[in-house]
Structures are given as C-alpha cells and as structure tokens.
UniProtKB/TrEMBL annotation:
PROSITE patterns per record: ABC_TRANSPORTER_1 (PS00211), ABC_TRANSPORTER_2 (PS50893), CNMP_BINDING_1 (PS00888), CNMP_BINDING_2 (PS00889), CNMP_BINDING_3 (PS50042)
Domain Cyclic nucleotide-binding per the UniProt entry, residue ranges: 235-357, 366-469
Swiss-Prot/TrEMBL keywords: ATP-binding, Nucleotide-binding, Transport
Start and end residues of each ABC transporter domain: 7-246
Record-level GO cellular component terms: plasma membrane
Residues that span the membrane, as ranges: none
Gene Ontology molecular-function annotations: ATP binding; ATP hydrolysis activity; transmembrane transporter activity
InterPro entries registered for this protein in UniProt: AAA+_ATPase, ABC_heterocyst_DevA, ABC_transporter-like_ATP-bd, ABC_transporter-like_CS, ABC_transpr_LolD-like, cNMP-bd_CS, cNMP-bd_dom, cNMP-bd_dom_sf
Family matches, as CDD domains: ABC_MJ0796_LolCDE_FtsE (cd03255), CAP_ED (cd00038)
Protein name, entry field: ABC transporter ATP-binding protein
Amino acid sequence: MSAQTVISIQNLNYFFGEDSLQKQVLFDINLAVKAKEFLILTGPSGSGKSTLLSLIGCLRSVQQGSLKILGQELNGATREQLVQMRRNFGYITQSSNLLDFLTVQQNIQMSLELQPGFSPKAARAKTAAILESVGLSEKLDAYPKNLSGGQRQRVAIASALVTQPKLVLADEPTAALDKTAGRNVVALMHRLAKEHNSAVLMVTHDNRILDLADRIVHVEDGKLGLALNQELSLVLPGFNEASLEKATTTPTVLTYQSEEIIVHQGEPASKFYIILEGEVEIIQEFADQPPRLLNHLSRGDYFGEVGLLRGGQRTATVRVAKNSEVKVMVIEEELFQLLLTNSELTNADIVRRLHQRVMTNHLSKALPKVDPFQIVAIASQAKVIKYKANSIIVQKGELADQIYLILEGEAEVFVSDRRSSKLKSGEYFGNAQLIDGQNYPFTVKAAANTDVEVMVIDRESFCSLILKSNTNQDIVASVLRHQLMNF
Ligand SMILES: Nc1ncnc2c1ncn2[C@@H]1O[C@H](COP(=O)(O)OP(=O)(O)OP(=O)(O)O)[C@@H](O)[C@H]1O
C-alpha cells in the first residue's frame, strides 16, 4: 500500500497587499508530500519559503489554488477549521520556543495538554519516553536556560513529536547551532519522524544537512523547482561553482514510472544519471541463468559511469523499483567527461565507486549462490592499489592473504622463472590459495610497459562473504576454483 499523502498542493498562488500595491509572492506551486517523507525546502532569502510554510501550517488563508492537508481542502476553510487542523502539526523553530519558567518536563507536557483525551499519567509516561529517545532523561527537571543550544533544540523536537503529529514543520531549526549539534538535531528529527510516521517539511539554508533529506525542493522568485545544484554537489561534492553551473544551466530531468527500465545491459552507453527522487534496482542479466538483483540505489546516488568509463557498454540493467517513481538528472557523455577533467576529486570519487561496482559484478558472476548484498558490502570496503610497471604484486612463497582483481593494465604470472601467462582487466588471482590457506605458487608482476591497478579483498572479508552466504564452504570453493582464474 502506498503511503498516505499528507500535503497536496495544486496551482497555488499567493499575493501580499491589495489593488495597485498587490504583489504576487508564490506562483503556481505544485507539491505532494507523503507520510514519513523528510523534505527540505531551500531558496534565497525573500523567495517565499516562509510564506509557503505558513500557508501549509494554517497560519494564513489560501487565496488561489488548492492546498489539502490530510485530504482536507484548506481553500475556503473557516478559522475554526484551520485551528483544528493545526492540532495535527508539530512546530520547530530557530529559537526552540520553550517557556523559560517551565521545566523541560512541563514544557513537553504542555503540548500533550492540548490534545483531546489528555490524561496526566499517560502524559508523564510519554514525556519520559520521548526524553529518553532524545537522550535527555536526566534533564527532566532542568530549566531551559540551563541547557545548551543543542539540548534546547532536542527538547523542542521532543515537544513537537510527543503528540505523534502527522506533519512536522521546521523553520531553520539548526540556525543557532554549530555543525555537529546541527547535524545531530536533524538526524534525531529524521529518526523520530520516521518512527512516528510523520512527514517533515523543513526550511533551511544549512547546506551541511542536505544529505539527510529524502528530497530537496527549491523556491526561487516564488516558484518551486528541483534543487539541482544542491543535489549535484551532494552526490559529487568535488564540483566547483563553474562545473555546477555548466551541468545545471540546461538540465534534462526525466521521470520514469514503477518497473520501467532506464538502461538495458549490453546497450551502448552514452549518458550519466543522477537520482533525484525514488529508487532503482541494478540487475545483472545472464545468458544461462535467471537475472540477479545486485543492488538498490536511491536519491544521492548515480549510475551509468561504468559503461561510460569502461568499454562503452551497459554492464547491468537499471530498472525503477516497484511502486516507486524515479526522477533522474541526465548528463550527456561529452559533458560528463568534461566535468571529470575539471575536478580531480570527483574523478577520484567516481573511479573508486566504479571499481567497487566492477568488483561486485565480477564476484556476483563467480558466486551465484552468495547474496549479492553481501558482495556489495564487501566490495565497497575493498582497497585499490596501483603498482608501477615491472614491480612485484605478489611473491612466490608468501602466504596468500588477499584476492586480487586487475582493474587497469596487465599483469604477468611467473611460475618458476618463466612467464606462464598474462592477466588482463577483469581477471583474478589469489582466490584458490586463499581458500586453501596456501602460499602463492607463482610471482605476479605488473607488465613491463604498463602500471597496474588492482582491487584487493583481504582474507577476513572474503571468508566472511563465504560464511554469510549460508552456502556450504566446499561448494563455494569449488565454484570459485571453477569460475575464477586458478593456477
Ligand atoms: N506581510 C508582507 N507584506 C508584503 N510583502 C511581504 C510580507 N511578508 C513577506 N513579504 C514579501 O514576500 C516575499 C517572500 O517572503 P518570505 O518571507 O516568504 O521569504 P523567505 O524565502 O522565507 O525568506 P527568508 O529566507 O529570508 O526567511 C518577499 O519578497 C517579502 O518581502
């Protein structure tokens, strides 16, 4: 069942002043927010964020368009209906709104006293429970002036959430806090809101917490849009202003529906995708066995780089998850390559992730019985090491303690003094010896003319992969011997 829609806004306009002094501040706003969604509203000062928040919070009357909260239309609602509706909300502001002459416990209980069916005993229990979940049990009898800014905001969160509101409206809740306290407070709000099934709409200028949102929307000159600049710098933090500008001036944003395929394995690759909303599944397809679900990706992640940077073909299929709608920002290959040359940090970030994904694909092919999510977890911890041309990667006689995957370049294998074979990108060594606890019966060197980049998984991670797979170790070992390079 899909989550309940808490806020539904269609074609909303808002004006200040009258007649010739009338000024429109919100233009054709459309927005839907579901239960459990944590949505951040950004935008420059004066763009209309507070006006929108106050309309949603029933502090102003709707003039034009439709604004429904929990299914109830607010355009035309009476003052009494607006007041009633506010009982479903929790409010958190910049300056925590606590009453200085009441203790922490009394401040929180006050929110409960306004609720229908209030019982002092139940209120005390709820207050104690929520104070424990914000980590302030020992401050029950303290007065707000004796708390730090971060502690006061935690009490404010407890007050706002103790009634289990359907919607929490937060206006710059981290403005008065330092970085750590600000992040802690928002992370706490995020966790509690999910636990209580509340939707959260938070206005903020604080770029340090954007990654905690499920979605960011941007208000500029009274119009609502996607926050592409913020989304891009969240996904790839190495971009400078010029690159961000280049990537977002004429953006292509595409929407895909539940179970729609965005890229097909085997197709030529020409685009890079950044997920703005929703969830996709990464599926590996085989000629001779059923497809495998390798991973889920959601907002804050990207795909398409493997095909663009290695071989030009899609190495997996990307499909929208069931019941999800996905919005992606699409970057064409030429711009993608240009952005990478402009930012070493982004390049390094993408290449590291690329290697992990290549490793996951290879291991998943070789270990069809192992849970792909375990493989993803191990691959994401693997190290990438570069060896200069002609240098030794493993020495004959050493105890085998790692499995090696060649990512770039070529390696040469020497059994006795003669070169016996060459290993190319995508090939492995060390696996058979690792399983059997043997010494390496060969020396492996980077080829004379190329540097070699390898990804290594250590014994501990590799064995945990096998153990966690719930598969008989001998079967895994024989599969590995059969499917991976074996000397
Ligand atoms: N009572 C009012 N009468 C006339 N104009 C107003 C009134 N309140 C706000 N405005 C104007 O409406 C526009 C939107 O203001 P709003 O306070 O919603 O912006 P904001 O995005 O919340 O800004 P900030 O981030 O600085 O709080 C601004 O141009 C502002 O000057």
